[in-house]
């Protein structure tokens, strides 16, 4: 249920997006490979100009064209390809990733780099790793209802830490 304030914010965001015209493109192609993503990004860059950002939602939905021994090796290939795409396009590539279910078994449910699903190469290839954590998801009696923690798990050029936001 949206409040009138929420609706006002949504309308403002829609207005902002409409000003972007062809600068905000969505490619929801199924079974995207790193090569098809690169082709699409390059085509759109020629047509509309270089991208400011590429967002992959989410990494594990991408496929590797040549079959590898296991899914971990495929994710490794995809991760390296996304890193190369970021360098080629000189813009950040944000790749969302699933987490392992192992964090569900821990007392502290805050995610860490080891929880990235299917590959240590994600941790290796990434310049920055960010996690979101909300205690209310796991603890209904939390005193921090409405608080999200932004956990900086890796940052090549700076410190690690956690920031809380309401």
UniProtKB/TrEMBL annotation:
GO terms of molecular function: ATP binding; DNA helicase activity
Name of the protein in question: Replicative DNA helicase
GO cellular component: a single term: cytosol
Organism, scientific name: Citrobacter braakii
Pfam families: DnaB_C
Alphabetical list of InterPro entries matching this protein: DNA_helicase_DnaB-like_C (IPR007694), P-loop_NTPase (IPR027417)
Gene Ontology biological process terms from the UniProt entry: DNA replication
Keyword Plastid applies: no
Keyword flag Nucleotide-binding: yes
Xref: PROSITE patterns: SF4_HELICASE
SF4 helicase domain: residues covered: 1-166
Keywords from the UniProt entry: ATP-binding, Helicase, Hydrolase, Nucleotide-binding
């Amino acid at each position: 249920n949206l409040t009138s304030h929420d609706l006002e914010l949504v309308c403002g965001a829609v207005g902002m997006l409409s000003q972007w015209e062809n600068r905000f493109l969505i490619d929801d192609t199924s079974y995207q490979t790193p090569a098809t993503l690169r082709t699409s990004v390059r085509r759109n860059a020629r047509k509309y100009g270089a991208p400011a950002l590429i967002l992959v939602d989410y990494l594990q939905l991408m496929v590797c064209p040549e079959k590898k021994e296991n899914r971990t090796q495929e994710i490794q290939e995809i991760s390296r390809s996304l890193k190369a795409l970021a360098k080629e396009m000189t813009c950040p590539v944000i790749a969302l990733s699933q987490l392992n279910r192992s964090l569900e078994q821990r007392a502290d449910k805050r995610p860490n780099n080891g929880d990235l699903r299917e590959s240590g190469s994600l941790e290796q290839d990434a310049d920055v790793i960010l996690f979101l954590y909300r205690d209310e998801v796991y603890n209904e009696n939390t005193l921090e209802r409405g608080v999200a923690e932004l956990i900086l798990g890796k940052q090549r050029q700076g410190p690690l830490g956690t920031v809380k936001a309401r």
